[in-house]
From TrEMBL:
This is Nicotinate-nucleotide adenylyltransferase. Keywords: Nucleotidyltransferase, Transferase. It comes from Ulvibacterium marinum. GO terms for molecular function: nucleotidyltransferase activity. InterPro entries: NAD_biosynth-regulator, NadR/Ttd14_AAA_dom, P-loop_NTPase. Pfam families: AAA_28 (PF13521). Residues 14-173 form the NadR/Ttd14 AAA domain.
Amino acid sequence: MEERLKQEPSDVVKVVLFGPESTGKTTLAELLARHYNTVWVPEYAREYLQNKWNSEQKVCEPKDLLPIAEGQIRLENELTKKATKVLVCDTDLLETKVYSEAYYVGHCDPLLEEYALKNSYHLYFLTYIDIPWVGDDLRDKPNERERMFAYFKDTLEKYNRNFVILKGNEETRLSTAIEHINNLIDK
């Protein structure tokens, strides 16, 4: 089990889009990957949970979190091998940990927590809640955006993660992210 949650070593710069639902993470991941002519790692939970919803009309349960985490790391490890100098991750296990705690009264599977804290990235982009919320089958917290943003920010601070808050429209967010990634590449 542990091996299925472990990152494979790599020399690419890894950045994570991190934050509450419907804050532009996927759009920005796609734009950054295009800009750097690289691949991006989609959020495995969306596919997994959409399939669950479509087939069972059920939402995420605690038993789903480890399979989601395994799928996320599997995708990341596969796509790391295809990345150029940058790998853009639409999410990571730390985000899965945040959602686990937010939805399940502070609970997070110890194995998920271990690898959420052990796996590493060069930079997190914390996406602010200043863009309109868009609903879908999986999003369910339109009235809790401020609380969730604070939870995500507190988590990054608690675990001493290197992060930048992205605010503003798509172009502003993209240019800010590119500036910070370029600084990492140039080091």
